[in-house]
Design brief:
The structure holds 2 protein chains of 2 kinds. Chain A is 10% helix and 34% strand. Chain A is mainly β. In chain A, strand 2 and strand 3 form a beta hairpin. Chain A starts with a strand and ends in a 13-residue tail after the last strand. Among the domains of chain A are: 39 residues, no CATH class; 121 residues, Rieske Iron-sulfur Protein (3-layer Sandwich). Chain A has 4 helices and 23 strands. The radius of gyration of chain B is 24 Å and the shape is elongated. Chain B has a two-stranded antiparallel sheet. A two-stranded antiparallel ribbon of chain B has the order 4-5. Chain B is α+β, with helices and mostly antiparallel strands. Chain B has 2 domains: 99 residues; 48 residues, no CATH class. Chain B is 55% helix and 17% strand. Classes of the chains: A mainly beta, B alpha+beta. Chains A and B meet through strand 1, strand 4, strand 5, strand 8 and helix 1 of A and helix 2, strand 1, strand 2, strand 3 and helix 5 of B.
Chain lengths: 255, 161
Amino acid sequence: MWKSTVDGRRLRFHLSGINNQNFIMQDEETGTWWQQVSGCALHGPLAGQCLEEMAWDEVTFAVFQKEHPRALVLRPVEEAREDYAGADWEAEIAEYPTVTPTAPDDPLQPRALVVGVALGGEAAAYPWTALARRGAIADSVGGTPILVLLHPDGLSLRCFDRRLDGDALDLLIKAGADPPAMIDDRTGSAWDFTGLATTGPLAGRRLARVTCLKDYWFDWKGYNRATRVYATPAGEAPAAEAPAADSPVAHSPVP
Amino acid sequence: MRRALAIALAVIALAGLAWTATPIVLIRPFGAQTVGGLAISYALRARAATLTLALLVLGGAAAVALWPRLATWRGRLLTGAALAVLGLCAFFGRSNYFEWMFSPLPRPEFDEVAAADHVADDDLVLAVAIGDEARGYPVRALAFHHVVNDVIAGLPIVATY
C-alpha cells in the first residue's frame, strides 16, 4: 500500500511483469518499473526512487466494519467476480510452487506464513504458527519495541510500537475479553485492538502503529536478505496471559 | 538481388521475434528471475514500440522490393509469413500483454460498508484510514486485481496485493 505521488506527480500503476513471484508494476506516466513488495523503482526514469509507504492493516471485514462504520468498500467488478479468489484461496496458493532457492538450513518452508517487520535497518519474521499459538508477540526490531498482535478471530493482524512517553510497555492479553483487550504492566490500563487505552490511568492514550506484512517466508526472505526468524524463548509458556480478573473463561489458543 | 532481399527480410523478422519473445520468456510467471534478466527485459520492452514499428516498416520495404522478383508460391508465402510475424511483433510491442493475464483496477468503484453484502464477516480486507475516510479492499478481490489505483481524502494511493 503506497502513496502514488512522486516528485509532485501522481502515478497510475499497471502490471508489467513478475520478479520471482512478486509483481512488477509500471506507471503510465513515465514507464518506470516498480517492485510491488518494496515500492522501489527498478528500471526506468524514476529508478532508485521508492514510493512512500501508507499505514494499513489486514483485518477481517467484521473488525473493519466495526471500526469504520462509514467506510467505503471496493465493489467487485461484475465480469470478474467468478474469477475472484475463493474463500479457501490461501490453501490453494499454498500449493503453488516456488522458484527461489531454498537453503538446506532454512528454518521455515518456502510457503510458511510469517509476519514481517522491517524497522531501523533490521528485519524480523514471526512465524504465523507461533503468533497463532501466543496471540501476541512482544519483541524489539531495529531498536523499536514492538508488539505483533493477532485478534482472537485468528485472522486480523496489527503491529504496534510499545513505547509510550519513551518507555516500552509490556502488554498482556486479557483472557476471554470480548471485545479483545490487553492490560499493560505499568498501570493496569486496558487497551483495545486499535491500540487505544480504553480504561485505567492511560485511558485515551494511543500506541503508534508499525507496518507489518503477512507474507510467505520465501518472499519476505527474498526482499529482506538479512532477516532473522523469531524463535519462541525456551521454557516460556505458549501464551502469555494476564489473570482473568472478571472472567473465568480462559483465552483459548487460536487454531 | 532477390537473395539479398530475402535474407534481409528474414533477418528483420527474426530480430523482431527475438526482441519481442525475450522479455516474454524472461519475466514469465513461475519463472525464476535474475537481476540481469530484468534489466534486459526492461531495455527491450521500453524500446519495443518504436523498434518493432521500425522493423515492420523496414520489412515492408524489403517485401515490396522482393515481391515482383518472386517466382514461386513458396517464396510469396514465406514473405507473407515474415510480414505477419513483424505485424504481430509491432502489436505486442504496443500492448501490455501482461494485463491480458492479470486485470488491475484503474478506476475502482465502492459501496458503503453497510451495503457491502458481497463480503463475508471473516473475509480479510486491507484497511486504510486517512482522517475521517476509510477504505476496505477485500483480499479476495485484490488477489485477482493485484493493483488498485485510488484516492483517499484527496491522497492518491495504490493498493497492491
